[in-house]
Amino acid sequence: MKDVDGNQYIDFNSGIAVLALGQCHPRVVKAIKDQAEKLIHYSWTDFYYQPIIDLGEQLTRITPGSVSKKVFFCNSGAEADEAAMKMARWHTRKPLFLAYTGAFHGRTFGTMALTASKPVQRRHFFPLLSEVTHVPYPYCYRCPFGLTYPECKMWCVDFIEEEVLKKFHPAEDTAAMFVEPVQGEGGYVVPPDDYFPRLKKILDKYGILIVDDEIQSGMGRTGKWCAIEHWGVTPDIVTFAKAIASGLPLGAAVAAAELMDWEGGSHANTFGGNPVACAAALQVLDVIREEKLMENATRQGAYLMKRLKEMQQKYPLIGDVRGKGLMVGAEFVKDQETKEPAPKELEEVMNKCFRRGLAIITAGKSTMRFAPPLIITREIIDEGLEIFEGAVKEVNAQLG
Ligand SMILES: Cc1ncc(COP(=O)(O)O)c(C=O)c1O
Q1: Are 327 and 182 in contact (CB under 8 A)?
Q2: Residues forming beta bridges with residue 10, ordered by sequence position
Q3: What is the mean pLDDT of the chain?
Q4: CA of 218 to the centre of ligand 1 (A)
């Protein structure tokens, strides 16, 4: 990327995990131009057009589960999650939801009640929808229960059943649980491998739907279309946005046809599934397949993690490195023993990187998030990491 002054940046951020194919990929640009010459808008709630049908079919294929599915289109991630909330309520006729501390699902009034990663997202907006209970995310580096995996026997899953469902949040009144398979805004946190299968068993036992928010982790970023596939779990509703159209506003909620059984008019919008955005999205899916970008995400992500883990050995400022594919977090601490978070140092490193030509942002309280476009090469990762390591080295030297 180049800014107005001609400064050049390596992109480790993708416009918050949006630019899967990088900036202005020629095939996306051409599809946008071609579609804009044919049909720019026609409300899909009342009339169909080819790109939305083609994309709908593709989304039903790339989401887990072989049942017949339906797709609801919208314009953003929050709207996709909002649709999932309404759909789950309409279908189950149950009022309650479960979500995680550290979660991010959007900032509309409905999704704000699910979101719980920073007080600023909710401050001065209360009362919210009161029907959401938050449970601790499986964040093993900072276990909310002070336990250690695997000796903990994953108390965080049993906690949901024993301390929440059996004590104050009746399962029979619960429509759905919202999950991010890799927690994004909350700090790029990856659960242990046996977490989601265990969770799904409990939710199935009580008939609670699982909404898989793939808005940040989906579209191949972790090396699979949906990050939840890493754990072999089939969710009931999947939501997409961000990278789906590599820069144009588009969101979608995909569910089993029998679950998306609301009647016409119970949920709709004017712009969702815009033909130009759908044409861009069709190219995104094709290019990810043809250029084997999920394989690239897996390969480059493993390399990125390896390099960051080497830095962790050298610099006490880096306390933890974790990730899947090209969704990688490096958590900053003042001391690797005490794990005291280092948000100031984190910001200093981020700003130094920016001044030296690396666009990168933070997540959670004290984590640097690495989410480059899926087309990134090893050479560019090396160039970006040289800038990052230079900044880490300087800030690390200031630690007491
Ligand atoms: C996991 C997740 N869900 C939902 C959203 C909301 O998406 P949007 O900003 O498009 O409303 C985000 C945005 O960061 C996200 O990361």
Answers
A1: yes
A2: 358
A3: 97
A4: 11
The amino acid that residue 82 corresponds to is E
What is the H or E stretch that residue 264 is in? none
User: Strands 367-370, 361-363: parallel, antiparallel or unpaired by DSSP?
Assistant: antiparallel
Averaged over 11-28, what is the pLDDT?
A: 97
Distance 104 CA to ligand 1 centre (A): 7
Pocket test for ligand 1, best of 188, 242, 362 (most atoms within 8 A of CB): 242
Residues 6+ apart with CB under 8 A from 304: 323, 326, 328, 370, 381, 385
Give the span between the Cα atoms of 189 and 216, in whole angstroms: 12
Residues 6+ apart with CB under 8 A from 317: 332, 333, 334, 342, 345, 349, 392, 395, 396, 399
Q: Model confidence over 270-308: pLDDT tens digits?
A: 999 999 999 999 999 999 999 999 999 999 999 999 999
pLDDT tier for residue 130 given thresholds of 50, 70 and 90: confident
pLDDT-derived band at 377 (thresholds 50, 70, 90) equals very high
pLDDT tens digits along 2-13? 999 999 999 999
Side chain identity at residue 143, one-letter code: C
Distance, in Å, from the CA atom of 372 to the CA atom of 250, rounded to the nearest integer, reads: 20
165 C-beta closer than 6 A to ligand 1: no
- In the reported structure, the alpha carbon of residue 305 is separated from the centroid of ligand 1 by a whole-number distance in angstroms of 24
Tell me which of 76, 109, 183, 216 to substitute to probe ligand 1's pocket, judged by most ligand atoms within 8 Å of the beta carbon.
Answer: 216
